[in-house]
Amino acid sequence: MKRANGLLIYTTLYLAFLYLPVLLLPLFSFNDGTIVAFPIKGWTLDWYRQLGAQDTLLNALGNSLIVGITTALLATSMGLFAARAYVRNRFPGKEASEGLVMLPLVIPGIIVASSMLVLFISIGLKPSLTAVILGHSFLALPFSVSIMKSAFDDFDASLEEAAYDLGSTVLETFRRVTLPVVAPGIVSSFLVTFTVSFDEFVLAFFLSGNEPTLPVYIWSQIRFPAKLPNTLALGSVLLLASVLLLVVAEYFRRRSSSKSA
Amino acid sequence: MSDTPIIDLQNLEKRFGKFTAVSNVSLSLRQGEFFSLLGPSGCGKTTVLRMIAGFQEPSSGQVLIDGQDMSDIPANKRPTNMVFQSYAIFPHLNVGDNVAYGLRGRGIARTEIDQRVSEALDMVELGGLQSRRATELSGGQRQRVALARALVMRPKVLLLDEPLSALDKNLREQMQFEMRHLQQSLGITFVMVTHDQYEAMTMSDRIGVMFNGELVQVDAPNVLYARPRNRAVANFIGGMNFLPADAKEDASGALDVTMPGFGRMRIDQNPNVTARSAQALVGIRPEQLEIAADRPADYDAVAKGTVRDVAFYGENIHYRVLLDGVETPIAASVPNYFHSIDFKPGDAVWLGVQSASVIDLGRDS
Amino acid sequence: MFKLRSDTSRGLTLAAPATLYVGLLVAAPLVILVAYSMWTQTYVSIDRTPTWANYREALTDPLVRHLMIRSILIAGAVTVATVLTAYPIAYFIAFRARKKTLWLLLITIPFWSSYLLRVFAWKLILGFNGVMNSALMVTGMIDEPLTFLLYNEFAVVLTLAHAWAPFAILPIYVSLQKIDPSLLEAATDLGNGAVARFLRVTLPLTIPGIIAASLIIFIPTVGDYVTPSLVGGSDGKMIANLIQVQFGAANNWPLGATLSLLAMLAVGFVALVFALGLTAAGRRIR
Question: Which residues does the UniProt record annotate as the domain ABC transmembrane type-1 (chain C) (predicted)?
Fold first, then answer.
C-alpha cells in the first residue's frame, strides 16, 4: 500500500512537471508587463486584442489552415485505405509496407527537412505551401494509419460480409457499412493529422519559403522581446485550440471503439 | 506421518462488495490425496484455489497448510505451487530457465539446480529440452513445463487451475492418466480446479462439488455418481431423469414409492433412499433403465411409452421415451453392444427399473 | 482461389498510395542527398564533378566531430533521463491506476500544444530573469538569480525530457499492459518478492518497450535544432544546428547533405548497437 502511494505522489509531481510550461504561457499572456517573471504586474487582455490587428499573423494563420486541412485530407485518405488493407487483406510485402509507413516517426526532423528541400528544389518545386503540404502529409501519415488501424480492428469483418451477402456491391458496402462504422475514426484521424501539421515547425521552416505558417511566424517573433506578450497570447490561443481539437478527436476515437464492442 | 490434514479450510469466505464468491467452505484434505474442486464457471472454485495459494485473501475464515495458519504468510512464502490455467510460461526464458526459476531465487548451488531441473524434465518426459525456447513449445509441452516448474520446488501441495482446459481432446485424455500417475508416484497432494466432470472423475480420489460459492458435496467419484446429494449435483454429474414421487413408509420400514408412469414400487434395501417425506424427488440414471419391445420381466417397476427420438452416440444409443400420461420424456441409454435393440421414433416400448437404481434426491424443490 | 486473389490485389491496391508516398519521399531524397554530398558548392552554382571532398572535410573537421559526439551524448542523456523518469509513470498507469484512459489522456494533452511553444516556455522558465528565478526570489529562497539553469546541456536535457515524455510513457505502458498477469503470479508463486519479480519478469518483458521508447526519442533528438538554439546556448549546440546553417546562412548544400548523411549513419549505428546491446542484456536475466 505504501509503495502504491509513493508511486502516486511521483506521478502527480511528474504531471505537474508536464503541465508547468504549458500552463505558464496562458498565465503570463494576461500579465500587464513585457517581462515574463514573477511577480505578475497586473491583468490585461491587451495582448489578445492586438493579435487581431496583425496582418502577417492572420496571413500566417491562413497559410497554416490551408496546409493543415489539405494535409489532414491527404494523410487521412491514404491512411484509411492503407489501414483497411493492413487489417483486412493479406498480400505480399504487407509487413514491410506497414513498417515503412511508420518510418516518418523516427527520422530526425532536420534530415527529413533538408532532404525534402533538396529533392523539391531538384524537381523544380520551389519552397511553398505545396511543398509544406507534401512534407506534412509524410509526417502525418503514421498517425493516420495507426488511428485507422485501430478503427478497423474494432470493426467486425462479418458486417461487411453480411452486406455483400445481402446483395450490396463493393462500393455500396463501403458507403453504407464500412464508412459509417469507421467514421468516428476518420474524424479522429483528420483532427489529429491537422494538429500535427498545424504545430509542425522544422519542415515548415525549411519548405515554406516566403509563405510562412503560424509556427514559422512565431519563430520569427520569438527573437523580439518586445513582441513577447503577443507571442504568449497567440501561443495560448493555439494551445486552447489544439487541446479542444484533441478532446474532440478523442471523443470520436472512443465512440468508434465502443460502438463495435 | 501424522493425522494433521495437509490442507484444512475453516469456514472460508470471500466477498467482493455485495457479491459472495465463496461462502463458508470447510474442507480437510489428506496428505497424498488427489482432490478436485468441480463446478460450473463462476461457482467460486478458482477463488478457493487462489485463497489456498495466497493470491486472494479470505474475507473471513482460515487456510491451514500442514497445520500452520497461512493468514499472515504471503503467496511467495507458502509451501504450495501452482500450475496456471494459461500455464504462465515465462516467454523470455527457455525451458530449462523456466523450470529453474524458483530454485534460482533460493541460493541453491548451480550444480544442484541443474540436476533437479533435469530430473523434473525427465519426470514430465521433456528430458533434454532445456534450451528449447518457450515460444517454440506446443500446448502439451507448455503444460508439462508448467508441471515441472511447480514440481521442482517440491511443494507440499500442488495447485492446478483448469490444467487441461487448453488442450485438445486426445491430448487431454492422455494427460489425465499421466498426471494421475505422476501424482501417485510422487505422493504430493494435488488440488485441481475443473469444470469438466469426466476429468474430475477419472483423476481424483475425492471431488468437492461447488455451486454458487458453496461446497455442496465432497465424496469419492463413485459415491458422488451413485448418491448425489441434490438435484444440482445429480444434474451436473452424468445424465439423470428426475421424477417427482409420492413416498410412504410402511410398517416394515420399507418405502412405498409412487412414480409417474412407473406406478408403485417397494424399496426395502436401497441405501440411497433415506428421506421419508411425502413429496420426494427421485432420480434414475438413463443407463439404469431397461428398454424393450415387450413388457420386461424381473423388474421392480415397469412403464409403457412411445419412443420420441433416438440419438446415436457411438458407444451408446440414447432414447427419449414419452411415458403414457407423463409430459416430461424419460431418457434411457443402451450400450451399442445390443445390436438387437433398434427402436424408431413412434415405436411402442416398455421401460424397466430396479429399486436399487432409484436415487432419492430429497424434497422436490 | 478467386477470393484469395481478390483479397491480395485489393490489399495491394489499398496499401499502394501510402506505401509509394512514404517510399518515394524516403528513397528519392536519399538518392539526391547522396548525389549532393558528392558535388561541390562553388560561389553561386553547384559543381557536379563527383568528389569525396565533402566527406573528407566533414570527417577531419574537429568542430563536426565535436558536435556529432556531443549530439549523440546529449541525445543519449535525454533518452536515459526520459525513459528512467517515464517508466514509473507507465508502471503506475498499467498496474495501479483505475482510470487508465483518463491518466493516458492527462499525460498526452500537454503535447498537443506546439512543440516550438513548449521549448520556448522552458526558455522563459529557466532564463536569468525568468519564471523560476523570479519565483524563487519572490519567495525568498534565493537572493541572486541562478545562472546554471539556461544555455547549457542541462537545459537541453530537461527541455527534451519534457518534450518526449509521452513517447517514452506510451510504448513502455503498452509493453507493461501486454504482460499476462498470471506470469507475475507465477513469479510470486515460485517465491519472488516484489523487487525480484520486477527485475526477473517485468523488466525483461518490457525491454521491447524500452527499446521502442529509446529509439523514438534518441533518433529525432540527434536531429533536433529548435531546442539547442533556444535553450542550449553555445554549450548546447548540436549537429542539427550546423546542418541547418549549411542549408541556410552558409548556403553550402553539398556539405549540408554530407553532414545529414553522416548524422544519419552515426545515429543508425548507435541505435543499432543500443538495441542489440539491450536485447542481449535482457537475455542474460534469468
Answer: 68-274
* pLDDT less than 50: residues of chain C: 1-4
> How many CB pairs lie under 8 A apart between chains B and C?
65
Number of residues that this document lists for chain B: 365
In contact, B281 and B363? CB cutoff 8 Å = yes
C partners (3+ CB pairs within 8 A) are: A, B
Kindly list the structural domains of chain C, giving each domain's residue range(s) and its CATH number in brackets, ordered by start: 62-285 (1.10.3720.10)
Is A101–C22 a contact, with Cβ atoms under 8 angstroms apart?
A: yes
Alpha-carbon gap, residue A67 to A212, rounded angstroms: 11
Q: How far is the alpha carbon of A119 from chain C, nearest alpha carbon, in Å?
A: 5
* Confidence check: pLDDT of B270 > 70: no
Whether A85 and C113 lie within 8 Å, measured CB to CB: no
Could you tell me the CA-to-CA distances from A85 to A150, A253, A259, C12 in Å, in that order?
13, 20, 21, 7
Residues of chain C positioned with their CB less than 8 A from the CB of A254: 101
Looking at B106-260, list the stretches that DSSP marks H as alpha helix, in order from N- to C-terminal side.
110-123, 139-151, 169-186, 197-203, 221-226, 231-236
Mutate to test the interface with C, among B52, B95, B101 (most CBs of C within 10 A): B101
Q: In terms of pLDDT, which residue wins out, B70 or B268?
A: B70
Burial of residue B312, with CB atoms counted within 10 A of its CB: 0-12 exposed, 13-18 middle, 19 or more buried: exposed
Per-range mean pLDDT, top range of A245-254, B147-156, B294-303, C109-118? B147-156
- If you count residue pairs, one on A and one on C, with CB atoms under 8 Å apart, how many are there? 242
Write the ipTM.
0.84
Q: Which residue ranges of chain A lie beneath pLDDT 70?
A: 1-4, 256-261
Residue B118 has pLDDT above 90, yes or no: yes
Which residues pair with residue B8 across a beta bridge? B28, B64
CB spacing of C29 vs A118 below 8 angstroms: yes
Among C10, C23, C215, smallest CA distance to A101 is for C23
Residue A70 placed within a domain: yes
Query: Closest chain B residue to C201 measured between Cα atoms?
Result: B90
**Interface contact C286-B75, CB threshold 8 A:** no
> Cell 487462489 maps to which residue?
B50
Give B9 to chain C, closest Cα distance, Å.
Answer: 20
What angle in degrees, to the nearest 10, is found between the helix axes of B95-104 and B139-151? 20
- The pLDDT, as a whole number, for residue B2 is 57
Cα separation, B153 vs C200, in Å, equals 18
Q: Which CATH architecture has domain B7-227?
A: 3-Layer(aba) Sandwich (3.40)
How big is chain A by its Cα radius of gyration, in Å?
A: 22
Query: Partners for A (CB, 8 Å, 3+ pairs)?
Result: C
